[in-house]
Amino acid sequence: MDALILARAQFAFTVSFHFLLPAFSIGLASYLAVLEGLWLRTGRGVYANLYRYWLKIFAVVFAMGVVSGLVMSYEFGTNWSVFSDKAGPVIGPLMAYEVLTAFFLEAGFLGVMLFGINKVGKGLHFVATLAVAVGTFISAFWILSVNSWMQTPVGYEIGANGQFLPGSSWTAIIFNPSFPYRLVHTVIAAYLTTAFAVGAVGAWHLLKDRANPGARTMFSMAMWMAAIVAPIQIAAGDAHGLNTLEHQPAKVMAMEGHFQSHPHGAPLILFGWPDQAAQTVRGTIEIPKASSLILKHDPDAALMGLDTIPGADQPPVAIVFWAFRIMVGLGFAMAGLGLWTLIARLRGRLYDSPLLHRAALAMGPAGFIAVLAGWTVTEVGRQPFTVYGLLRTADSAAPLAAPAVAASLAAFAVVYFTVFGAGFWYVVKLMGHAPHAGESGLDGAPIRTAGITPAPALTEGEPA
To answer: Which residue ranges does UniProt annotate as crossing the membrane (predicted)?
Structure first.
């Protein structure tokens, strides 16, 4: 493999690890804010105990997310230095805004959130939790603005040295055509990822003890999120797909497996094997004209195919095709589980159905797999460009020799699987312990605030 393929593999490896962690921490930070808000409003100790329980997990996940993100800055300066030079005047300030807003906000309040629960008042601690939750969203805002500009570049000028320079309006760059759709779709995906992880943990403990109040509460809250938000995500994904069809048609052609144009209605290919060399999908199972109905809301509408795109500008179809189906399939599975829990709730069987709990446990990793599949569709579908239609990936890489890139890729693989493998193992170990009354936090003490004796509801025998 040449240096370009190795550099792409290295960035794909590191960004995939990194993307899993913020996807979890964004949703988990908001979940913690909801738990603390409910505790302050109702005084029920179960919410305080769940807050302590998930706070320990959040601390580990957040720390791993920060560390894994630092590596990509290194890669921008080594493997992708040409890209950094050409696109830096546009994307550099946006990434700096993330540091000046999200990072400073999180850094300023994270310590209070993690270690100040027994040292500051209830109100101030809740503000700290809210600040961290808002900080994670702001971080997603800026990072997705950068990525969306690379997908749908606008508001730039080309300098004499070939650099992308900001035009007259930063607003056009920040709020580029795909950004609102990508932001909504990704943040909802983060919330669903967290909901199904929390729901799986709740289901695991319900299978062992149906009367555990913490397990019942977390499972119920997670399944409400699944039932309500999963259908919203499907609608958001449809809107995002229509926006992609407008601005990145080759990506949608690869997602749909449309090598040929269809002037009188395109079929929806459910399954098949894309053969890019032959420009066809083999062994298809398809629904006639359904793709035109979904994308154009007209079964007879014409849809262009990859036969209108030069071969050198086509993305790798097989990867995009299958990643898209994994993402969509898991999305409908999430909505199906949410509907199942609604029916069980109406029948009074939400906590008494082992089959439902096993299904929720099996769906625990679904959000993580779905966000990785969606990210693959987004990034591989943009190929062969880093800045869509303007700067090719082959022209973005640094002039490094393959052995140098291979050595750093091997080093990253060893370190990542060792360090983050241990981190993930520890998170799963924390999840394996059932939440209980008087749950201790990072300081090892039961929850309390300065000068206030721990509430009786936080002792053993706490009411549900």
So the answer is: 20-41, 53-74, 94-117, 124-144, 188-207, 219-236, 319-343, 355-377, 397-428
